[in-house]
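Practice set, problem 2.
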Amino acid sequence: MADLLAGRVSTARAGSTVADGIAVSEPGRLTSSLLADHAVEILVVPEAAIEQAIAMLLEIEKTVVEGAAALAALMTYPERFAGRRVGLVLSGGNIDPRTLSVVALRGLAVAGRLNRLRVELDDVLGRLALVADLIAREAANVVEFGHDGLGSSGARSTVLELRIDTLDAEHAERVLDAILAEGLTAELVDW
């Protein structure tokens, strides 16, 4: 912490951050003095942890918090807080709606609840219905799909690009297994 307060370490990073309200390259003089006088420790957290914290607060607490850096620190450094009573300051509800939607969707993807599924099949009547039925039988939900005959291995085949809702990553694997068991070619695609 002393190096950060003395200005010898910078927290500046390339690109933007969802926690733009606290994204400073170094603490100001007044802030540095207060932190040093009270022996306050500064923790730097990765962007992914802040996004995960925002998504968790939104989903679990139904609370919009712009930075959620305090929860991100708790999740990133659990050993520093183990066995202690911890209070978190949550603030900054003025997050851009577009950013919030992206963070929420990414949170679902990271949790394995929103998945990309690619299925290649013969382009004949009823094949799309078969895939939809297999997904429904596994109690998953199709939220978006695209149909592209150009990206397939032949003129009589097609590729389905689907987004599916599942309970978690294990559930998504069960959906994939059901499709593969039907003899179709399919894969879960990383975001």
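Problem 2, part (b): a different protein.
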Amino acid sequence: MSRRTTSVLAALAAVPLFVALSACASSPASDGAGDAGGEDKTVRIGVVGKSDPQWPAFVEAAKEEGIIVELVDFASYEQPNPALTEGELDLNQFQHIVYLAGYNVASGEDLVPIGSTAIYPLGLYSQKYEDVKDIKKGETVIVPDDASNQARALLVLQSAGLIELKSGGTIFSDLADVDESASKVKVTALEAALIPNSLPDAAAAIINNDFVTQAGLKFEDAIAQDDPADENALPYVNIFAARAEDKDNETYLRLVEIFQTDPEVQEGLLEASGNTAVALKTPVADLEASLEKVEKDTEEHEG
């Protein structure tokens, strides 16, 4: 994830949550949620994009089974994992395995995946060009500044012929890996939520799916994207995450099943992604194995 200026990052630190977490402190997230045999159970789930159409359908489907879901909406990706770790949430659903691994390694925590949701192609968008080949040499392209999405974004740019990566490209590629002399464009990074407003100032930008519509774009407007069917895509599968001690919680696992199987939830998921999401029911054991590998690779990379 890159930054346009230091002042932008300073301003970012002041971005508030859409939902004040002070409300969470007065009502512990775990109250009643761990008792799978109880009657109505309230489960707090952190998301980025509470207004997406899959969530009302999900809340209603859960309610029909006696599970009350309270969605806690966050303004940026940096906040749902700490909130889950601190017990302000029971689950969160906003991230892929690479992002979770980066958080666990950096924080020393042990959040775990308890179910998959979907994988999304990551797209390159432009308000100036309709074809990636028309982007002129020396122009600027923006990518997200968080490590996991930045690496994936750089791989998209390399596949599109806009840059060359010195390492050939890995899940750890960052701006330092860009071979500027061999690349067609300059690359800068910015916090993902701020990229849509900055798109007019750049030739193009990698925009995370959560923020595409904020730029006045449609998902089909992408002029380049990665392939979610690639065999190396597993680390980018989006997941429900829980604290390690809750990985076998029957209520939480049932919520995953509801998300994966309810027709209206799945319809909303596709609608929210502009029909780009590829819904998945990846075995949890595969998710855990992928997380373990990415965490190990991350530790070795940082060591």
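Answer key, part (b): The first strand starts at residue 41 and ends at 47. The two ends are 21 Å apart (CA to CA).
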